[in-house]
Amino acid sequence: AQGSLLYLDALGAAFPRALSPRGTALLRWSPGCPRAPAGWALPSLYCTPGAVAALPSRAVVLRVQLLWALRQRALHVLEAGLAAELHDALATLRAEWPQLAQELALGRLRAQPGLPEGVRTQLQALLTPDAARAAELRTECARGFEGIVRRLWPQLEVVVVGSAQGTERLYCDALRQADCQGLPFYCPFYQVAGALLGVNLWPEEPVPQFLLCPDWAFCEFLPCPAEEEPRTMLLDELWEGREYGLVVTAQPGEYRCRTGEVLRVTGFHKQCPVVEPVRRESQELSVRGESIPEEQFYQSLCRTLGMWPGARLVDYVCVESNLLGDSSGPCAPHYEVFVELQGLRDLSEGQRYKLDQCLQEDFPVYKSFRFKGSIGPLHLHLVGSGAFARLREALGSPMPMPRVLREERLLRLIQGSVIS
C-alpha cells in the first residue's frame, strides 16, 4: 500500500491529469490470479475490464484489453505489466485493426479460442456501438503505424511499464522509436525475487532510478567486482558511484538469497540510496567460461544491426550449443542466436558473420577462444514474424522472458519458427 501511494503521488505530481477517473488503460496478463481491475490501488482509474486478466490465453487477454482501450479516446495513461505486453498488444493492432474497428462499430465482441463463452457474454454486455471511434481507428491505421499511439489517444501523457530493465529494455527501445514516439516511459517499482524493494520517484527521468525503502525487505550488498573474502554491506554503508550485488531476505526468517542483480548507486534521497539496475549475472553466455553478460551481448548485436541496412530488431534469444546436443553438429561449442527482423528478409553469410566479428572486437576473451578453435563460429538464424510472441505465450508466466534460453522445450519451439 505504501508503494502504491508513493507511485500515485509521483505520477500525479509529474502528470496532473494522469489520475483522472477511467483515464488509464491496463494491458496486463495475470494467469490464474483473479484480482481487482486495477494494477495498483485505485480501480476507478482504469477503463479496461479486470476479470479478463486471469484467463489462460495471453493473446486473448491482451486483445480484449486493447479493444477496451481503443473505446476510450481520452486516455491519459497507457499502463502495461511488462513492456513486452504493450509491444504484443500493438502488434495485434497492426495485424487486426480492421476486425477491431468492426467490433467497435457494431459493439460486438467476436467469439475466439481461449475466450470462454460465459466471459464473452459478460463482456458483451459492457459494449456499445461506436461508429465514430471505429472510423477514427480505420483512418489512423490506414496512415501507418509510426506514432500510432499518440494519434489514437491524443491526450495521452505517459506510458507506465512494470519493468524497463534487462530483457524489457529491447521492447521499450522499439516502442519509443516507432509506435510510442514522443511519449515518456515511467517504470515505478523495483521488484526482485518476489519482493518489492524500491520506488521510482522521478517519472520524467529517461533512465529509471529507484529509492530503496529500508522497511520493505532486508537488503544486503556485495561489492563488485567480488572481493577475496566478501562481506555483505548494509544500506548505510554504500558508496555513490559503486556497483553492488544484491542479497535479499524478503521477509525476516523466511529465506535469504543472492538475486544475481547488480546495482549502481547513483545518489541518495534523505539518506536512503538511489540505485540503477545494471545487469543480471545469471543471464550470461558461457561455453568455455568466457561469461558474456546479456546486456553487453545486446550492445554488440545492436552494433551489428548498423551493418545490416534497413534492418530493425524485433526480438532475439541466445543459446549455448550444448543445449542442442547432437543436432548442433560436430563443430566446437558455440553460440546459437535466433533473431526476428523487420525490413530485411534474408542475410548473406558475410552479414551473419558480422555478429561474430563484433563479439570478437568487444570481448578479447571470446576472440582468444575463437582464435584457438575452442569456441566455434556463432550460428545466426532468422525466425518468422510473431515467433517470439508465441514463445512468450508458451512460457505461461507473466515474468520477463529470459534472453539466454536454458530450457530445451523453449528452444525447440523457437527452432520450429526458423526461416533461414
Folded structure, characterized:
The protein has 420 residues and is an alpha/beta fold. The chain folds into three domains: 1-187, no CATH class; 209-280, no CATH class; 284-416. The chain has twelve helices and 16 strands. The strands form four sheets. The protein has a seven-stranded antiparallel sheet, with helices on one face. Strands 1-2-3-4 form a four-stranded parallel sheet. Helix 3 crosses helix 5 and helix 9 crosses helix 10. It is globular and about 65 Å long. Mean pLDDT is 88; it is low at 34-40.
The helix count comes to: 12
One letter per element, helices H and strands E, the order comes to HEHEHHHHEHEEEEEEEEEEHEEHHEHH
Radius of gyration: 23 Å
Strand line-up of the largest beta sheet: 5-6-7-11-10-9-8
The biggest beta sheet is recorded as: 7 strands, antiparallel
How many domains is the backbone divided into? 3
Query: pLDDT average, as an integer?
Result: 88
Q: Which structural class best describes the helix and strand composition? A: alpha/beta
Strand composition percent? 15-25%
Poorly predicted runs? 34-40
Compute the number of strand runs. Answer: 16
How far is the first residue's CA from the last residue's CA? 50 Å
Oligomer: single chain
Q: Which percent bin holds the helix content?
A: 25-40%
Shape: globular
